[in-house]
Amino acid sequence: MDDDEARTRLLDAAEALFYAEGIQAVGMDRIRTESGVPLKRLYKVFPAKEALVTAYLVRRDLRWTADLRGAVAEAADPVGAVFEWLAAWFSEPDFRGCAFLNAYGELGTGPAAVLDVVRRHKAELRELLAEAAGPGHEGLADQLLILVEGATVVAALDPGPDPARRAGKAAAALLARAGAGTR
Amino acid sequence: MDDDEARTRLLDAAEALFYAEGIQAVGMDRIRTESGVPLKRLYKVFPAKEALVTAYLVRRDLRWTADLRGAVAEAADPVGAVFEWLAAWFSEPDFRGCAFLNAYGELGTGPAAVLDVVRRHKAELRELLAEAAGPGHEGLADQLLILVEGATVVAALDPGPDPARRAGKAAAALLARAGAGTR
DNA sequence: GACCCTAGAGAACGAGCGTTCTCAACGCAA
DNA sequence: TTGCGTTGAGAACGCTCGTTCTCTAGGGTC
By its UniProt entry, which InterPro entries does this protein fall under (chains A, B) (predicted)? Predict the structure, then answer.
């Protein structure tokens, strides 16, 4: 096992455990056991837990945003595609809300590096929504962001595609109104 | 100091600390120091930390919901009043998102009693929104809930009244559309 | 005053945390 | 074969946590 493979295995274990059970609730020993990476190499690759936490969030951000961006890019109705993608995400059996908001709630006064990743993630999401709304509707991005976040939060407590569908309908209504307004 | 006063002081300290720094990040000793209640009485009133956590959430739920309900009850435009109330809440200097969602993110796999309070809180909020939407618009309650939650989450990362205003505008648009639909 | 129940202050306990250290096993150049 | 740097397994450390225990000091009641 080299450092790269160790890194991947550690991040896989960290993501599964941190997302499912919370960051503070999962100790380094659990991650060592689950990943099979020796403690010595763990601390060689990630010198402290904080580094592992930020790396977990960064990798998840990259994958999540790329996934969503891919689903939106090839769609005729980009805004609709966002909420379809959300509906599928909310239906995954291990869905437990937004990893970044969970981390923020837990570590709100914690290390600044973690909060930076959360903020960056949300800024990217807003940017993506502004593009999906299309030119001339950039002002809708903030309202779409509210709908996306709201649907995610509601789905965290009541899993399934319904919150995404309802938010999608609201988004379509707002879009139609904005379209009428600028016509 | 009798048990009642101890209880109040403990809940005051617990609410301030848990909400500001997270539940796991605050130890019982901090609460003892901040409240001035001796450890022995603390454990007499709340036999374990879990009891203190649930009591904190229950009391906050009662106060929060009553406050919002009061603001909505006397308003000519109940839905608008909800988002005005939110704008004021988001502008409080120590605002740090929804205490119940923060607790859920942190203790997602934790004690069931805590999750019950979170669920109950959100069910009450949805009920309140259904009443605010008025008879004939109960179906809007779920969309309003998404807007309220979304605004709260966005404001947690970017404090100030703006998210509430934007969500309020979106709500008004949805209401107007629904009004047109049933006319 | 003698007794007893209660309360306060804080030490103590066992467990778990993040992190570091020990030590034996191994790979491999000379 | 000898020596040496690196690795893995896990014990150990120092700390903090939630919780309990100890000891002392009142405060009534006879």
Answer: Homeodomain-like_sf (IPR009057), HTH_TetR (IPR001647), Tet_transcr_reg_TetR-rel_C_sf (IPR036271)
CATH of residue B23's domain is 1.10.10
User: Domain containing A131 — which CATH number?
Assistant: 1.10.357.10
CA of A55 to C1' of D6 (A): 26
Contact flag, residue A108 CB and nucleic strand C, below 7 A: no
Residue B148 makes CB contacts below 8 A (sequence gap 6+) with: A150, B82, B83, B86, B125, B129, B167
Domain residue limits at B25: 1-47
Cross-chain Cβ contact B154/A149 below 8 Å: yes
pTM of the model as a whole: 0.93
**Is there a single domain that holds both residue A175 and residue A94?**
yes
Q: What is the pLDDT of residues A69-107, one digit of tens each?
A: 999 998 999 999 999 999 999 999 999 999 999 999 998
CB contact under 8 Å between B167 and A146, yes or no, is: yes
Number of domains in chain B: 2
Q: Which residues contact B51 (CB under 8 A, 6 or more apart)?
A: none
